Backbone:
């Protein structure tokens, strides 16, 4: 008889709301190496992933660069909708046109423009010249930084000195194709164009420095690709009538899943939207939420959702529990909802509360199929926004979609507050430290997760879920002192690095 710890069913039925740091797993039996752990999973009923990572639909987390990088790693990004329909569609169209694991910031100008400052190049080696000065029009040429610096008359129109023979490659080329071509031609950079567009729209820019940087990163696993060979991509929409028109445009751009985005998903509005999606786009996987209780989950499962998003008030920038007194500790929420969802074959996305690899291990071992990350990804190169310095630390802005700043752009619909006379914030605006590229730290994070699963004696997510349901996975609650002991303590100072 196993007297160590408690099975999850007993631990989570005592009336306490536990979060990840409150609980700890007891070790199992190891008979396999960490590298043999299989992290393949499902985002939703019909979408497989190589790694259990999902980028959150937040406007400081997921746009083109994040979506492309996550898919290249084997995960998936969910593009936010705190923008116009055309802007969201453009983000998806750009991401879908990529075959390499990064997206560059592109700068465009028209032939009649002038370049007055080197700042106009930002971090790009060139400015592309198109007929109308935007990316949708025909490419005419480019101006390199070096050409502009050697120009005697900086007020001259671009048409008088631009290079009219730009070297381009199809955006369908993979990393090895592009790297090989650039090496053979000794090019410093090359533009990638979408050959499916009539004007050959420029969708990416690859430099020789990019090639060297990618070669030095950990080897990527299997990318997330659809049947058409393009990167898998999800998008979020709300529950307003106008979101039906938004969804129509997103489906045309080729999204693989739609997330009905709401902080409290058990509503008439969401149920009506789920019915609309299932009737109008039966091929499209629809993910409902957010939910934290069995009752909420069962209501959405009855409507035919293909996945559930779990979490309410657990994000680092979310104040829903504080403001509204509604929510649930994330560990309890994930266990409870996944227990019901599993009976119907519905994968669960643990959304919020992820700040280290141990939290990922806990979320997955408590029944989730994937974890959705916001702050964990927000400081990366791939997150939208620019870096700035605060108190000597390089940071990027990160804001909750319930913050007043985000709600002024339309995210108040997520909190069912777009028709309210008074706007009440359920989130804050903050900043997160520079983390570098997710192409580097996500592979290291996944290796740490594999080691966690090895310690549990689980060689896969499915194995971990079996240990959970059978009662072989044992847990205990940690006291405050135990939580302190489980972290770094007793030092005057230290440098905390995971890789």
Residues:
């Amino acid at each position: 008889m196993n007297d160590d710890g408690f099975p999850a069913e007993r631990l989570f039925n005592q009336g306490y709301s536990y979060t990840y740091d409150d609980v700890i797993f007891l070790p199992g039996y190891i008979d396999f190496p960490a590298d043999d752990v299989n992290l393949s999973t499902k985002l939703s009923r019909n979408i497989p992933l190589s790694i259990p990572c999902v980028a959150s639909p937040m406007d400081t987390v997921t746009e083109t660069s994040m979506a492309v990088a996550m898919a290249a790693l084997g995960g998936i990004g969910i593009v936010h909708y705190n923008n116009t329909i055309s802007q969201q569609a453009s983000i998806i169209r750009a991401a879908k046109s990529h075959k390499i694991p990064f997206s560059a910031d592109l700068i465009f100008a028209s032939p009649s423009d002038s370049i007055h400052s080197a700042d106009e190049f930002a971090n790009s080696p060139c400015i592309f010249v198109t007929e109308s000065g935007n990316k949708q029009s025909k490419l005419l040429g480019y101006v390199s930084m070096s050409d502009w610096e050697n120009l005697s008359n900086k007020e001259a129109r671009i048409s008088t000195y631009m290079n009219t023979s730009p070297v381009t490659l199809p955006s369908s080329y993979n990393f090895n194709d592009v790297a090989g071509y650039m090496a053979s031609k000794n090019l410093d950079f090359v533009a990638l164009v979408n050959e499916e567009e009539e004007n050959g729209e420029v969708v990416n820019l690859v430099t020789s420095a990019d090639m060297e940087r990618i070669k030095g990163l950990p080897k990527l696993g299997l990318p997330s690709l659809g049947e058409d060979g393009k990167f898998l991509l999800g998008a979020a929409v709300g529950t307003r009538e106008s979101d039906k028109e938004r969804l129509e445009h997103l489906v045309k751009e080729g999204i693989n899943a739609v997330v009905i985005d709401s902080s409290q998903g058990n509503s008439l509005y969401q149920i009506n939207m789920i019915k609309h999606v299932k009737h109008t786009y039966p091929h499209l996987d629809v993910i409902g939420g957010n939910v934290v209780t069995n009752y909420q989950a069962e209501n959405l499962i009855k409507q035919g959702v293909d996945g559930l998003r779990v979490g309410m008030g657990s994000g680092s920038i979310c104040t829903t529990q504080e403001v509204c007194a509604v929510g649930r500790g994330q560990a309890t929420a994930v266990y409870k909802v996944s227990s019901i969802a599993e009976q119907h074959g519905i994968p669960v996305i643990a959304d919020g509360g992820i700040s280290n690899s141990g939290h990922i291990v806990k979320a997955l071992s408590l029944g989730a199929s994937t974890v959705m990350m916001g702050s964990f990804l927000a400081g990366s190169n791939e997150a939208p926004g620019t870096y700035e310095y605060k108190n000597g630390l390089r940071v990027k802005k990160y804001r909750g979609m319930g913050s007043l700043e985000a709600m002024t752009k339309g995210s108040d619909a997520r909190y069912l507050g777009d028709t309210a006379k008074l706007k009440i914030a359920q989130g804050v605006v903050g900043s997160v430290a520079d983390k570098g590229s997710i192409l580097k730290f996500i592979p290291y994070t996944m290796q740490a997760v594999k080691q966690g699963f090895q310690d549990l004696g689980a060689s896969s997510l499915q194995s971990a879920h079996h240990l959970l349901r059978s009662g072989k996975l044992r847990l205990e609650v940690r006291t405050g002192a135990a939580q302190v002991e489980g972290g770094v303590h007793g030092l005057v100072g230290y440098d905390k690095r995971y890789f």
User: Anything to note?
Assistant: The radius of gyration is 24 Å. The domain at 108-209 is CATH 3.10.580.10 (CBS-domain). The mean pLDDT is 88.
